[in-house]
Amino acid sequence: MALVPYEETALMGLQKFHKPLATFSFASHTIQIRQDWRQLGVAAVVWDAAVVLSTYLEMGAVELRGCSAVELGAGTGLVGIVAALLGAHVTITDRKVALEFLKSNVQANLPLHIQSKAVVKELTWGQNMESFSPGEFDLILGADIIYLEETFTDLLQTLEHLSSNQSVILLACRIRYERDNNFLAMLERQFTVSKVHYDPEKDVHIFKAQKRNQREGL
């Protein structure tokens, strides 16, 4: 999940995470994301995978207008914010301890007439699933949420619960370690998985997954 403490040594060469604001331009809006590494660690900084997935959404690869979407392990909420600006109704989720920080970024970056399209909600993978209807979402989004092996089973359970036969899952990540490939192998047991985008500059892949008993495509 997005809220995981990292050792300080892991931050070497990543001074951008110490900046209090990260500024982006998506969907004809300037988005200013507040960052707070010291308080919340990886949940409170913008990772490259979130930028690449936001760019992919802006490219129009999926139809977002009127779409029901959820972002898992949202952290700063960038992907969910961009999806809402592009017309989706988005539930932006993370663990309870990160919610106030997440809400502040969502509220600061969505115009008033769009704020009703974005709901910030608690979701710890594999838990409190009863607060979400099975197959509730058309689109499930995750940026850099595949990195802790002990969360893989819970993440898969969550993806299975939230997706219907028509749902599309988009996961953006770097393939850093063997465990990343292990997750993709686990995912392929339940879903049809394909790589739909690669950003060579940031070394980020986007994978599309759909339940196996459905036709391809949105």
Automatic annotation (TrEMBL):
Record-level GO cellular component terms = cytosol; protein-containing complex
Q: Where does the protein end up?
A: Cytoplasm
Q: Which GO terms describe its biological process?
A: methylation; negative regulation of protein folding
One of the Pfam families matching this protein, by short name = Methyltransf_16
Report a single Gene Ontology molecular function: ATPase binding
Q: Which reaction does it catalyse?
A: L-lysyl-[protein] + 3 S-adenosyl-L-methionine = N(6),N(6),N(6)-trimethyl-L-lysyl-[protein] + 3 S-adenosyl-L-homocysteine + 3 H(+)
Which InterPro entries does this chain map to? Answer: Methyltransf_16 (IPR019410), SAM-dependent_MTases_sf (IPR029063)
The superkingdom of the source organism is Eukaryota
Q: Which UniProt keywords apply?
A: Cytoplasm, Methyltransferase, S-adenosyl-L-methionine, Transferase
Concerning its family, UniProt says: Belongs to the methyltransferase superfamily. METTL21 family.
Q: What does it do?
A: Protein-lysine methyltransferase that selectively trimethylates residues in heat shock protein 70 (HSP70) family members. Contributes to the in vivo trimethylation of Lys residues in HSPA1 and HSPA8. In vitro methylates 'Lys-561' in HSPA1, 'Lys-564' in HSPA2, 'Lys-585' in HSPA5, 'Lys-563' in HSPA6 and 'Lys-561' in HSPA8.
Give the protein's recorded name.
Answer: Protein N-lysine methyltransferase METTL21A
